[in-house]
Amino acid sequence: MHFGPHLLLAALEGLVTSAVLALTALGLSLVFGVMRIVNVAHGEFFMLGAVLAWAISTAISGHPAIGFATALVIAPLLVGLVAFLAEWLVLRRLNYNPESTIVATIGMLYIIQQLALTFYGPEARPVEPPFSYRILLPWFGYSGYKLSVVAASAILLLITWLVLTRTKIGLIMRATQYDRETAQAFGIPVERVYAGVFAIGAMLAAIAAVLIVPISQAHYLMGQDPLLLSFIVVIIGGLGSLRGTVVAAVLIGLSDGIISMFFSPTLAKIIATLVVAMVLVFRPQGLFGTAPR
Amino acid sequence: MADKNGFFDLSKKSLSRRTALKGMAAGAGLALAPGFVRYSQAQSSAPIKIGFQSHRTGIGAAYGRWYEKTSAAAVKAINDAGGINGRKVELVIEDDGTDPARGAEVVNKFAKQHKTDIVFGTLFSHVVIGSAPAAGENKIPYFVVSEGHHVASTKLNRYVFQPGITDVKSQIQSMAPWIAANAGKKVTQIFPDFAFGYDHRDYLPPALKAQGANVIAQIAIPPTESSFTKYFPQIPAETEVIYHVMVGPAVLTFVKELGEFYGSQRPQLFGFMDSLEAVDINSPGLEFLDGSHFWEGSPRYAQPDDSAAQKAYRAAVGIDDNGAAVGDPKDISTASHMFGCWETLYVVKKAMEDAGYKGPEDRAKLVEATEALKEFAEGPEHPQGPKTFNGKIHQCFGIQNISKVEGGKLKVVHKTKIEDGLYEPEGDYTTQAL
C-alpha cells in the first residue's frame, strides 16, 4: 500500500480511538476536576456499559438498530445508577478523602470486574452494529459504523461543553470545582453535585463503551486499556480541563494510530508514556490545566 | 458492630465443654494409632488428588471453563469405572489468572499445601513456561494440555509432559503440504506476539519451503491488542494466503476488521481454530469467513463419520452437534483443544496403573512409567484419534483436521496422518536426573 492511503487509514483508525478516548477521559477528568477524586474504577464503568449493551441488545429482537438504540439510552442510565449508589455507599462515607477514595475505587474495580465475570462470563461477546455499511475506498474498505462513532462522539462532546458552560447545572458544577467551601456557603448542595458528577462521569464512559462495543466485543477485562489511556490523556491535557482532555485525546489517538501503523504499537505506547513523564516534569498542571491556587 | 444476637459468641452455641473434650480425645486417639493403619488406610481409599491449574480468569478464561467441564466429565467417567488403582480421583482446582507468575505460585501451592499427586491442565504457553520450573523444583509431574512446542523442545524439565494434545511444530508440519497444494504459495502470517505465536513464526516458513511455498510477511500482534485494522496494510498485495492464528478476547474483532478491510476481494484464509475457540462461527461479521479453512484439533461440529467413541465423548462432556453446550446453543465450546484434557487424564490413569502408583513418594516412578508409554489406540479413552508418544521428548503425535467453513458450519475436508507430523527429537528428557 502506498504512503497516502496508508496514512489515511492510520488517521481514520486514530480518529476512532480518539473519539472513544475523549468521551471516556472526559468522564474521568470531570470527576477529578469537580470532586478531586482519582476514580480507578472508571474503566470498569466503561466495561459495565459494554456488557449491559450486549445484554440489552440481545434481549431485544428485531432490527439490530433498535436493540442498539435502546442500549445507547438504557445502559448508560444503569451505569449511572450504579455509580450513584457507589458514591452514596462508599465515597461519601469516606468524606472524599483523596487517599481513601483511591483505595476504595480500586476495591470497586475488582468488585465490578469479578461480578461481571460471575454473571456475564469470560467470553467476548459481539453486539451487532446498528448498520453495517462498508465504505469502499480505492485502496481499502472501511467500516461506515466506525466513522459514525467519531461523529457521535463529537456531538456528545459538544453537548457536554454546552451543558458545562451554558446551563445552570454546569455553572453549579464549575462553582463546586472552583471552590467547594464557598460554593457550599452560597447554598449549593455540594454532596448532591458530587453524586451527580460521579454518575455523569461513569455515564460518559458507558456511552463510549456502547459506541465501541459493535467494533470490539464486550469482555469483562476490557476496562483496563481505556483506564490507562484515560489517565494518560487526562494528565497530558490537564486534570479537570475539558478542552485539554479533548485535545490530548485527539493527540494520543492519532499518534497511536499513526505510530503503531508505521512503526510498532509498542513504540506508540512508549511514546505516550514518555510524553506523560515529560508533561509531569515540565508542566505538571497539564497542557491546558491551571496551576493550583 | 454489636453482636446483639450472639452470632459470633461461641459460648452460647451448643458446643459444650464435654463434647469438645470428647472430640479432642477421639482426634488424639486417631492420631496416636499405629502408623501403618493410617498409612494403609490412606492408600486404599484416599482419593488421588489432581491439581488442576485452571485459567478461570484472565485472557484464557473461556478456555479454562471448558477445560474444567471436560476434565470433570473425564474424572466422572474414570471414577464410575472404578477410579485409578481402585482409588477415586479428585480434582483440586486453582485459578492461575492466565498469568505465568501466578501459575508458578499455583504449582507451588499444589505441591506444598494441597499436596496433590500431580499438576494438570494448563493451556496458555506462557503460563506453562512460567510454571514448569516450579514443577521441576517440587519434583511434581506436570501434565499440560497446551499444544505449544515448548515441552517437545526439551527446554523445560523432566517433570513436564504433553501426552494429550499435539504440538504446534507437528501440526504445522503436517498441514503445510495441504496449504501449499490447495490454498496458495505466497503466505502472510499473522500471529500473537508471545511464545505460542513464535512457534508458528519459527516453524511455518521451513515447513512451507519444503513444499515449494513461501512466507512473504510475518506480522506479530500484541496479545492484548483490541483493534487490528492498523496492521492490515502490512499484508503484501501479492499475498495468496493469510495464515492467521490469534488468541484472546479480541479475535472476533480481528476477523471482522479483516472482512471490512478486504470485502469479497480477499486472499485465501487459513486459520488456526484458536482464533475462534468459544466463538460462534455464525456471529455477525463473520460471514466473511465463509469458504475459508481452519485447523481443528478435534472437530467442533459433529461429522458424518464420527466414531462411537467421539459420540460418547461429546455426550459425556455435554456438547451438541454444533459444539455448543447442551441446552445453551450460544455457549460455544473450545472443542479443538479441550479433548486434550480428557485424553491426558486417561494417560495419567494408564501411567499410574503401570507404575503401581501409591502416593507422592512414587512420583519418580510415575514419570518413568509415562516415559515408557508408546502409543494410545483410538477409542473411548482417546476419542480424537490414535496417537503415538515419544517418551524422550514427552510429547504425543496424532492426526490433524483441516475444516472448511460451509453454510455456517465447519466441515472436515482433510485429515492428516500421524507420520506427517513426526520430526527429529531435539533432545532427550530421560537423560535428566529425577
Poorly predicted regions of chain A are none
Strand content of chain B: 15-25%
The mean pLDDT of chain A is 89
How large, in whole angstroms, is the Cα Rg of chain B?
A: 24 Å
CATH class of the largest domain in chain B: Alpha Beta
The general outline of chain A is globular
| Total strands of chain A | 2
Biggest interface, and residues per chain?
Answer: A-B, 37 and 36 residues
What order do the SSEs of chain A take from the amino end to the carboxyl end, as H and E?
A: HHHHEEHHHHHHH
3D structure, described in words:
The complex is a heterodimer of chains A (293) and B (434). Chain A has 293 residues and is an all-alpha fold. Chain A has a domain at 24-221. Helices cover 74% and strands 2% of the residues of chain A. Chain A has 11 helices and 2 strands; from the N terminus they run ααααββααααααα. Chain A has helices at 3-35, 42-59, 64-91, 98-119, 144-166, 168-178, 180-185, 190-212, 224-237, 242-262, 265-282; strands at 134-136, 141-143. In chain A, strands 1-2 form a two-stranded antiparallel sheet. In chain A, a hairpin with a 4-residue loop joins strand 1 (134-136) and strand 2 (141-143). Chain A is globular and about 60 Å long. The relative contact order of chain A is 0.20. Chain B has 434 residues and is of the alpha/beta class. Chain B folds into 2 domains: 42-166 and 339-398, Response regulator (Rossmann fold), CATH 3.40.50.2300; 168-306 and 318-327 and 400-419, Response regulator (Rossmann fold), CATH 3.40.50. Chain B is built from 11 helices and 17 strands. In chain B, strands 7-6-8-9-10-16-17 form a 7-stranded mixed β-sheet. Chain B has a 5-stranded parallel β-sheet with strand order 2-1-3-4-5, sandwiched between helices. Chain B has a 3-stranded antiparallel β-sheet with strand order 13-14-15, with no helix packed on it. Chain B is globular, with a radius of gyration of 24 Å. Mean pLDDT of chain B is 88; it is low at 6-15 and 29-42. The A-B interface holds A 1, 5-6, 9-10, 13, 16-17, 64, 117, 121-124, 126, 128-129, 132, 134, 136, 140-143, 215-217, 219-222, 225, 257, 260-261, 265-266 and B 56-59, 61-62, 64-65, 221-222, 224-227, 229-233, 237, 249-253, 256-257, 260-263, 278-279, 283-285.
